[in-house]
Amino acid sequence: MSELAYKRTNVYEVADEKLMKEIFDYAEGYKTFIDAGKTERETCAYVQDQAEKMGYKPFEFGQTLKAGDKVYYNNRGKNIYLLRIGTADVAKEGIRILASHIDSPRVDLKQVPLYETEGIAFGKTHYYGGIRKYQWATIPLALHGVVAKKDGSVINVKIGEGENDPVFYISDLLPHLAAKQNAKPLGEAIGGEDLNIWFGNIPYTSAKDDKDKTVKENLLKILNEKYGMDEADFLSAELSLVPAYNAKDIGFDRGLIGAYGHDDRVCSYPAYTALFDANSDKHTVMVVLADKEEIGSEGTTGMQCAIFTDLIDEIARSFGVSSALVRSKSKCLSADVNAGFDPNYPEVLEKLNSSYVSCGACVTKFTGARGKSGSSDADAEFIGYLRKLFDDNGVIWQTGELGKVDVGGGGTVAKYIAKMNIDTIDMGVAVISMHAPYEVISKADLYEEYLAFKAFIVG
Ligand code: MN
Ligand code: MN
């Protein structure tokens, strides 16, 4: 191939011993991180803890920031901002922003979840984000979340992760009796109201009243003993069912990692570790770990919340400059995953423009669907800037589009940030089986993403 032609680079094909060691060592920290936080709340708490260890202090609105300050803002326990104030003039250099999300598709309990039928107690659910429902049946599920009591106390719930913990379950038909279900389209085989959680089947036989000798009553008794809660407390609870298994290396050579919620924690981890490790105090850097991306970035903890620009306003005010000016000079990598090319399903992915596992960090110019609709479509000039930055820093990277034209599509937080007059592009890691209970990524891509973020922060 001539020097004029473009070709992707497979990281594992070119990595020397030193790089291979760095890739594999970095992956271990990531596996610890992804197992420690399976919900936005848990990830938020974990990252706050890591930030405090690195000297970050809580930020309060009204506080004046100065060069060298390292602060965090924990928004309602579900969305966290890390800010490091640099020595460069924010009116000239703006802010370097890395934005990823820490919510992942899952199955949430409804507010009145409990019922009993035929001697079995179940929990009703409403799924969160885009899931393929059949994938969530017959796998072990753990219950994570909070119960907010009337007295203002909040109970943390996490059942199913300990070695001796029970897990929860969504049933499916046995093949012997599934002929009719098998004939349905895959997306209709299991309906939204069929995702009922198996909660128990031992009745409360020692109840005084015969009508209380039920499985549901026994369940309420257990919940009351363990958490001091009653059935009405579910009304003010956020409880989620997530896969009850942890990250593992995939394959004989261990080059890949399987885990729940790579989308988008595989970008969150490199974002905040790049901030901690970047060897420069020049630029002001903001790392956003957002909630609610999977349901449209809405609400107080989603990327569309004004808190994002409010924090930029606070930085601008601290230096007596206009927030509009700071935003106009800022740059953002919307750190989110891309659909990696899966040779088992080539019909939905276009070979030239897909991202490939182990071919490095993936830049996605536009997302959207049907004619790029709903995408912020980054400027060529901004990609030109990043090309030089990444190439000069030896980052192995590629580009990727989410599937063939008109097959489907998707979106990220990029458009909400771009709307604020900030140059923004999506950059992330190729994921196989995105939104499945167990997704797959490459250790090499995770590490190249980290190198790319470091270069972006320093450059
Ligand atoms: Mn995502
Ligand atoms: Mn997603």
Detailed description of the structure:
This protein is of the alpha/beta class. The chain folds into two domains: 11-104 and 260-458, Zn peptidases (Aminopeptidase), CATH 3.40.630; 106-243, Roll (Aminopeptidase i, Domain 2). It has 13 helices and 20 strands. The strands form four sheets. Strands 1-2-3-13-4-14-18-16-17 form a nine-stranded mixed sheet, with helices on both faces. The chain is globular and about 75 Å long. The mean pLDDT is 97. The chain binds manganese (II) ion (2 copies). Residues 101, 263-264, 293, 336-337 line the site of one manganese (II) ion. One manganese (II) ion is lined by residues 101, 263-264, 293, 336-337.
CATH homologous superfamily of the largest domain - what is it?
Zn peptidases
How many helical elements? 13
Helix content: 25-40%
- What is the 3D shape? globular
What is the overall pLDDT average? 97
Sheet having the most strands: 9 strands, mixed
Class based on secondary structure composition and strand pairing: alpha/beta
Radius of gyration: 23 Å
Spatial arrangement of strands, main beta sheet: 1-2-3-13-4-14-18-16-17
Structural domain count: 2
For the termini, the CA-CA separation is 31 Å
Second CATH tier, the architecture of the largest domain: 3-Layer(aba) Sandwich
Per CATH, the class of the largest domain reads Alpha Beta
The stretches of 5 or more residues where confidence is low (pLDDT under 50) are none
